[in-house]
Design a protein that fits this description.
Blueprint lengths: L2 H28 L3 H27 L15
Helix pairs in contact: 1-2
Pfam families: DUF2383
InterPro entries: DUF2383, Ferritin-like
Protein name: DUF2383 domain-containing protein
């Protein structure tokens, strides 16, 4: 796989994680259940951790990581 294709694929994964973070933040703010808040908070942190690793790999390939989301969350 060439570098550009790899960067593009990694950026898609970054975008998926950004979407997950946005969705979990919405879910976190919409619930009052402490257990669910803890779960969503953990999911947010996991997605952020994954993004850091993906961004590192993109930059290692001299690519530019993306930071937006693909999905518009409507509340």
């Amino acid at each position: 796989m060439d570098k550009n294709k790899t960067v593009k694929t990694l950026n898609k994964l970054i975008q998926v994680n950004n979407d997950r973070i946005a969705g979990y933040k919405t879910a976190f703010s919409e619930t009052t259940d402490i257990s669910l808040k803890a779960l969503f908070s953990n999911c947010i942190n996991t997605s952020k951790f994954n993004n850091k690793a993906l961004i590192f790999e993109v930059e290692k390939l001299d690519g530019k990581p993306i930071f937006g989301t693909k999905t518009a969350f409507i509340c």
